[in-house]
TrEMBL record:
Name the UniProt record assigns to this protein: RNase III domain-containing protein
Gene Ontology biological process: RNA processing
CDD domains in UniProt: RIBOc
InterPro entries listed in its UniProt record: RNase_III_dom
Organism (species): Paramecium pentaurelia
Family annotation (PROSITE patterns): RNASE_3_2 (PS50142)
């Protein structure tokens, strides 16, 4: 088995994984010639599939789904995977790898911190490693396991029952169960002009429930932004419900309090992902930073040999 976390025989493959299409188009526009490394579009989807496979593989090898656990069905596993392998989580991990220092986005510097760009670049590097290693799944498991550990750590404080929830469905179910009010949700597409002179397209999602709550969030991914809004709205409604259950005071007539229905008070044990999973196998996993490779080393390069030498020097530092 290869004893390096990242080991590229063809360093141009890594260069392609680090190159967003924006960079490729800008290069071709400025130089009038084809960018030598291509872009990472094809790698993104493959990297996503690899992450999903190893996430499922990790749980299945530990006996899940299991009717005696909180992960009872294969659909529970799928929901956990969707929630934990989120764009935000993967972007945070990409920053831990210092990928924001070397991702290639041309002159769109603000995009180096863009969660979508970062998550896609991390997936691309994983896919590039898969191809370059000759489809060595054992080696790829070593690459992916530290990422899975971080993903699972991010879910450790969240009860599994919440991780498995679809935020929109959970919110609507709660609202229908405790109030006769109807939420109003609006989605607006607009440009965010606060990005240092480089406006980006974003979605603004607003949820209102009469005068009880109003939540507005913006994000580049419509579905993820909606989930954030629904999740936050559900949390706030539960807080309001708890205050009403413990309050003896008369509610202000000008507000429209939630009409609490009789509910089963059976306590639910909040079992977290780390209560269910034994992550000790990965406790010694380490992160390997790409921070030693500077942005200028990859910026609009014309000489492939120079890039290869610099990346190869970086990779030598990843030896265990």
């Amino acid at each position: 088995m290869n004893n390096k976390i990242f080991s590229f025989q063809n360093t141009n493959t890594l260069a392609q994984a680090l190159t967003n299409k924006i960079h490729e188009l800008e290069y071709q526009s400025k130089k009038g010639t084809k960018y030598p490394f291509g872009n990472n579009e094809d790698f993104v989807g493959i990297g996503q599939m690899i992450l999903e496979f190893f996430f499922s593989d990790y749980l299945i090898q530990r006996g899940y789904p299991n009717k005696d656990s909180q992960i009872k069905k294969s659909s529970d596993l799928v929901l956990l995977r969707q929630r934990l392998l989120s764009e935000r989580n993967l972007a945070d991990i990409a920053i831990m790898y210092k990928i924001d220092n070397i991702v290639q986005v041309g002159n769109q510097i603000s995009l180096k911190k863009n969660p979508k760009i970062l998550a896609e670049t991390l997936k691309s590097i994983i896919a590039a490693q898969y191809y370059d290693s000759g489809f060595d799944l054992d080696h790829l498991r070593e690459v992916v396991q530290p990422i899975l550990k971080q993903v699972l750590d991010k879910g450790q404080g969240v009860p599994i029952i919440e991780l498995k929830q679809n935020p929109k469905s959970a919110f609507l179910e709660f609202v229908n169960g405790c109030t006769n009010l109807k939420p109003k949700v609006s989605v607006e597409w607009k440009k965010d002009t606060t990005q240092n002179g480089n406006p980006i397209n974003v979605y603004q999602v607003q949820l209102e429930l009469n005068n009880i709550l109003s939540i507005t969030r913006m994000g580049i991914n419509k579905r993820n932004t909606e989930q954030i809004v629904y999740r936050e709205a559900l949390q706030k409604l539960k807080q309001i419900q708890q205050k009403q259950l413990h309050s003896q005071e008369q509610q202000n007539q000008q507000t429209q309090p939630l009409k609490i229905k009789t509910q089963d008070k059976e306590s639910i044990q909040e079992i977290t992902i780390l209560d269910e999973l034994d992550t000790s196998v990965m406790e010694q996993s380490q992160f390997y930073s790409l921070s030693d490779l500077k942005d200028d080393d990859l910026n609009l390069l014309e000489n492939q040999r120079t890039l290869g030498q610099k990346v190869e020097s970086l990779l030598e530092q990843f030896a265990l």
